[in-house]
Amino acid sequence: MNLQDLIKTGESDTVEFKEKFNERTIESAVAFANTKGGIIFIGVSDKNNIKGIKVGKETLNQWTNQISQSTDPRIIPELEKIKVDGKTVIAVKIKENPIKPISKKGRCLKRVDSSNRAMSAQEVAQMHLHSTGMSWDKYPAKDASFEDIDIDNVNRYIRKARETGRKKVGDDEEPIQVLEKMNLITEGQPTWAAILLFSQQTNKFISQAAEVFFIVDIFSKHNLEPLIFFKYGFWKSGIKAVLLYFDLSTG
Questions:
Q1: Buried b (16+ CB within 10 A) or exposed e, 3-20
Q2: Rounded Cα gap, residues 83 and 85, in angstroms
Q3: On the CB side of 248, how many CA atoms lie within 13 Å of its CA?
Q4: 158-192 pLDDT, tens per residue?
Q5: Distance from the CA of 104 to the CA of which of 121, 143, 203, 221 falls in 20 to 30 A?
Q6: Tens digit of pLDDT for each residue in 138-157?
Q7: Residue 128 is assigned to a structural domain of this protein
C-alpha cells in the first residue's frame, strides 16, 4: 500500500496524523519506536483532512535532528515529502527500535490502538530486560558522573552497614571502592542503580514513579538492606514507606 492510500485508512496503531510538527510529534515517534514502528503524517488533521504544510529547504533535516536529539536512545527517522490532493504532506517513518524503551525527557510511551500511552515503571523495566537481555540498572546512567553521587550518603550507608554487620565493608575502603565492589560503577561511570540509591537528585534522571519501583528492584538484585536506608532518612517519605514494607515482607 502506498503512502497516499495509507492515509485513507485513518489513524491506527501504526499511523498517526499531525497538522504540524511539535513536541507531540516526537512523542508519537517514541511510542512507535517502542512498539512496532509506524508513520506520522504531518499536514493531515486527526479527522483525515489533508491540510498540507509548508516546508523550507532545511525543514526536514531540522525535524530529523529534533527527533534524534530529543530521544534516548536516539531515534533516526526517515522523512519523505509527498503530494496528496496537490498539497505537501511529510511522512515521518519510524522503525521499531531494537533497544528499548526509548524515552523523551525521561518519559517512555507505547502505542495502543490509535493513541500514545505512558508506560508504567514495571513496563519500562520489563521492556528493557526483554530487548537487551540485561537488567537496566547495570548500565551506566546517561549523563551521570561521580559528582551526582552524594558521598556523604554513601559514607552513611557504609557506617550503618558496618554497625549492623549485614554488609561487609573493609575499614580502609573508600566510598568509590565500595560502589565498585557493589557493581554500582561500570566503565568508570555510576550505574542507574548507583544514581537511584545514592543521588539526591534522582528526578534529574528519572521520574519519581519509576524511582519507587526501581529502588525496590535494585535491593533484591544487589543484596542491600532496605531497612538501613529507611531508618536513616535516605529518601522521601513515600519511598521510605515502600522500603519499609519491602524489608518487613522479605525479612
A1: eeeebeeebebbbbbbee
A2: 7
A3: 8
A4: 887 787 776 777 778 888 888 888 888 887 888 87
A5: 221
A6: 778 777 888 888 888 888 88
A7: no
